Amino acid sequence: MLRLKYEQIADQLAKDIRRGRLPRGARLPGEHVLANRFAVSRNTIRQALAELGSRGLIATHSGKGSFVTFDGRPLDDRIGWTRALAEQGVHTAVEVIRLELVGDPDLAERCGVESDEFVAVDRVRSIVGGPAISFECTRVAARGRLRDLPGSGLDGSLYDVLRAEGLLPEQGEEWVELGQITEVEAAVLSRAPGERFLRARRLCRDRNGIFVEHTESLLDPDRFRLHLRFGGAE
Predict the structure, then answer these.
(1) In the beta sheet, which residues pair with residue 135?
(2) What is the pTM of this model?
(3) CB contact at 8 A, 87 and 56
(4) Less CB within 10 Å around the terminal CB: N or C of the chain?
(5) Angle 197-200-203 (CA atoms, 0-180°, nearest 5)?
(6) Neighbouring residues of 223: CB distance < 8 A, sequence distance ≥ 6
(7) This protein's superkingdom (predicted)?
(8) Residue 195 phi/psi, 5° resolution?
(9) How confident is the model over 13-60, as pLDDT tens digits?
(10) pLDDT beyond 60 at 67
(11) Are 119 and 140 in contact (CB under 8 A)?
């Protein structure tokens, strides 16, 4: 099967890492250096680095920030929760209950994008053989392969499709509050109306400020937490 350019670059860097050419804990060359080495754009390099991260071969570190934890374990949401949870030994089943093109002028204005057309991806996530733990309503720009999702379906990770489009969530904002779920939400989650869930709203952009996704989630507070880290060296 033909490998995409960023996948070929990721394969080569993976070989360098496994053969010891890039020692454990060593800092990778910068994007500009790698782009020159492989004669590709920096965006392609970012896709390759994201692929290495999804394989667990590299990690990024920052001095401060916030991140979601599940049962006290941090989740790397840059690779998608299904994969992030699996890496923590938690296996989940995801049911896509909505996948369609929608128009949302209010969301377009809030996200600062010109087009008010989005792809709606609504999913219920459950522990395998157990209860639902989240209800995630995501909106992504209706462009490229993303626009085709309602017709082609979403068989794998939405983050893989985003990455293939060169859209890597690297910055953004998140708002979290505790609230009661409605009757409609309770029916989706197979819970009782009025149960308390964490309501999270997340807006992600790439490093250039381009819109990547907007997600509103209901998270089981018995399993999910929001961890805030601050101070220390930048």
Answers:
(1) 124, 218
(2) 0.65
(3) yes
(4) N
(5) 170
(6) 70, 71, 133
(7) Bacteria
(8) -60, 150
(9) 888 877 777 665 566 787 888 999 999 998 898 888 888 877 777 765
(10) no
(11) yes
Name the CATH topology of 65-229: Chorismate lyase (3.40.1410)
Torsion region of 48: left, alpha or beta (phi above 0 gives left; psi -120 to 50 gives alpha): alpha
Class of domain 5-54: mainly alpha
* Token representation of residue 186: 């309770």
Q: What is the 3-state secondary structure (H, E, C) of the chain?
A: CCCCHHHHHHHHHHHHHHCCCCCCCCCCCCHHHHHHHHCCCHHHHHHHHHHHHHCCCCCCCCCCEEEEEECCEECCHHHCHHHHHHHCCCCEEEEEEEEEEEECHHHHHHHCCCCCEEEEEEEEEEECCCCEEEEEEEEEECCHHHHHHHHHCCCCCHHHHHHHCCCCCCEEEEEEEEEECCHHHHHHHCCCCCCEEEEEEEEEECCCCCEEEEEEEEECCCCEEEEEECCCCC
Q: Residue written as tokens 């209706």?
A: 142
Which residue in 57, 19, 68, 80 sits closest to 220, CA to CA? 68
Tokens of 221: 């507070």
Q: Locate the domains of the chain by residue range.
A: 5-54, 65-229
**Could you check whether 5-54 and 65-229 share the same CATH topology?**
no
More confident residue, 160 or 105: 105
